Amino acid sequence: MQGSANLNIMIKAARRAGRSLVKDFREVENLQVSSKGAGDFVSKADIAAEAILKEELMEARPNYGWLGEETGETPGTDPTRRWIVDPLDGTTNFLHGMPHWAISIALEHKGEIVAGVVFDAAKDEMYMAEKGAGAWMNNQRLRVSDRSRMIESVFATGVPFGTQPYLPAALQDLARLMPQVAGVRRWGAASLDLAYVAAGRYDGYWERGLNPWDMAAGIILVKEAGGFVEPILPGADLMGRGGLICGNGAIFDTFSRTIRDRAEA
């Protein structure tokens, strides 16, 4: 894929942060970990990766705004553009030695995500997309699946942990959906769930209570791969915390109706 200058900046930043995270992942038992709340950990690796990403991205585009999971929001002198970054999506997997985690970088322009990168450094899979240029994984063009029968389709979601308020709604979602489908997966990294929908590995994905950095890059991956992405609550802000639902065009209507039967965020 021949990307723009901005996309190449994002890829370079993701690869540099990925090298740092892979090194720490090999020594995960020795990481110093502090708790941010039940089931939600932040490690030295996480903070170091965000510092690398911020240095790379803001040095290249110092006038852009910034929204990062660990360092929060910093307005830019260009109010129309900002980076939205999760330095380590799947922190709990990382800390338990499970190689399913990613770096997520998105570029927002006038409220719209126009470029996104999700880097699965443990597997060396770089997912990338730009508005109008398609979605790619390394050198492979991505398309959502073409499955049209729910009973043959596999979906992904996130199940709330700890004291998060979305558990009752999530359990009701599962109770309605699971009898209709081939399977539901909960792998603990929203950015990769979205990337897998774009790659046709999953047929659909939904989750409540996401933050912008969890989903920003994945949204454009799915759209550019030919999928549908909407807020769970019709008319809500897609980048808000009400939840997201996405899938291929053939099953999206049936899938979304099933989840929206009780769409309380």
TrEMBL record:
GO terms for molecular function: inositol monophosphate 1-phosphatase activity; metal ion binding. The keyword Hydrolase applies. It catalyses: a myo-inositol phosphate + H2O = myo-inositol + phosphate. One of its GO terms (biological process) is phosphatidylinositol phosphate biosynthetic process. CDD domains: IMPase (cd01639). Keywords: Hydrolase, Magnesium, Metal-binding. Its cofactor is Mg(2+). PROSITE patterns: IMP_1 (PS00629), IMP_2 (PS00630). Its EC number is 3.1.3.25. Mg(2+) binds at residues 69, 86, 88-89, 214. InterPro entries: IMPase, Inositol_monoP_metal-BS, Inositol_monophosphatase-like, Inositol_monophosphatase_CS, Inositol_monophosphatase_SuhB. It is an enzyme of class 3 (hydrolase). It comes from the Bacteria. Belongs to the inositol monophosphatase superfamily. This is Inositol-1-monophosphatase. It comes from Mangrovicoccus algicola.
